[in-house]
Amino acid sequence: MFAWIEELLQSGNTDAAFEQLIGGFRREKQYRLIFDARMMKKRLDLGLPLVSLPALGDLQDAVRQPYQDAYIQTAREVGELFLADGDIPGAWTYFRAIGDAKPVIQALETFNVPEPDTPERQDLLSSTVQVAYQEGVHPRKGFELILKYYGICRGITMFSAYPQQEGRDESLRLLVRTLHGELVDNLKRAISNVEGTDPATDSIAELIASRGWLVENNATYTDTSHIVSVLRLSTELKDEDTLRQVVELADYGSRLSSMFQHEDEPPFEEGYEDRLLYLRALLGENVDKAVSHFEEKVARFDSSHYGTRPAEVLIHLLSRVGRYDEAIRVHRRHLADAAPEDPSCPTLLQLCEMSGDFEELKRVALERSDTLSYMAALLQSRSNRAK
């Protein structure tokens, strides 16, 4: 090949030499070398050094735009070659460089891998999940792949380790549905083995009703640590159907033997029962009872020993059920001196905005010498009067 290249160049046919070389790289699927060859050819055309890679900012105006255009065009060409071979991670290297995620998102949407039973397939799956979920290119698809090929335990770990907001709601719904579906399938199988027929419902509540034998002798039908983990994440949920599935999971957990009951940190130290009351309140059920229950927790657990978590949970609950004035009062009373870092509930300013009480927002802003929030209160108040 080296002699052949030299012969072409000696004949003065530089373009043919590059195209022949690129054709060989394409046949051998050495797509990265195609990128290098095309950019070298462009540097030759523009009179730039062939080996050293120039920084765009160092180029003269006359050559900067042509070189940048060639870079974008070549990156897209090479990225498409990788996609045609099903190599999404390889393609992402080039599409990420030019800020174009759309072709990769489209490819991820239809991505599938046969059972990852070889090292090559395992590597492809792992690196594709890395692009889709950890790098946030298509989080919902990435999380779907995690649950399908790695299971719920890995899904919970990954969900907690990469708390990016984009795709988070979809991923959490997927997690809940997968765990709920697993439990339903296992309960149905157990019932069918005893009763001889497969129940026609997918409701956990209906499956366990009048079948106390299901939980006798410390029986369980899914990993209870998965239920506990999902319940801890479930306060983020806003989708009613998914919330009802989580309520069913909590109700199932509450019926298990004492061996599988768990204690949590206040205000959820009563485990499943506290979670059930909280989640049902989010669905509009027994709201007054839930608020009173968690108010009592705030009074019982001294913040100097237990921290502000009980108060934060109560504020979050009050804000979710639209009782903003109460949430503001609890915030003023219990979180006035709390550090603002990583709160698990809305801030006082956010609560004022949610409630539409811009006079309160102005008062809070004045107390804190927060001129920007004060301006926001004035502007929103003026906007409301205009409407």
Total beta strand runs: 0
Order of helices and strands: HHHHHHHHHHHHHHHHHHHHH
Uncertain parts: none
Described by strand count, sense and barrel closure, the largest sheet is: none
Task: State the oligomer.
Answer: single chain
Which strand-content bin applies to the residues? under 5%
Termini separation comes to: 76 Å
Mass-distribution shape? flat
The value of Rg in angstroms is 30 Å
> What is the overall number of helices?
21
Q: From the helix content, strand content and strand pairing, which structural class follows?
A: mainly alpha
* Helical residues, percent: 55-70%
Overall pLDDT level:
91
Question: Can you describe what's shown?
Answer:
The protein is 68% helix and 0% strand. The chain has helices spanning 2-10, 14-27, 31-46, 61-84, 88-97, 102-109, 119-134, 139-149, 152-161, 168-195, 204-208, 224-233, 240-255, 272-282, 287-300, 303-306, 309-320, 324-334, 348-355, 358-367, 371-386. The radius of gyration is 30 Å and the shape is flat. The mean pLDDT is 91.
Brief account:
With 387 residues, the chain is mainly alpha-helical.
Write the layout of secondary structure elements.
Layout: H1 2-10, H2 14-27, H3 31-46, H4 61-84, H5 88-97, H6 102-109, H7 119-134, H8 139-149, H9 152-161, H10 168-195, H11 204-208, H12 224-233, H13 240-255, H14 272-282, H15 287-300, H16 303-306, H17 309-320, H18 324-334, H19 348-355, H20 358-367, H21 371-386
Task: State the main characteristics.
21 helices; mainly alpha; flat; 387 residues; 0% strand; single chain
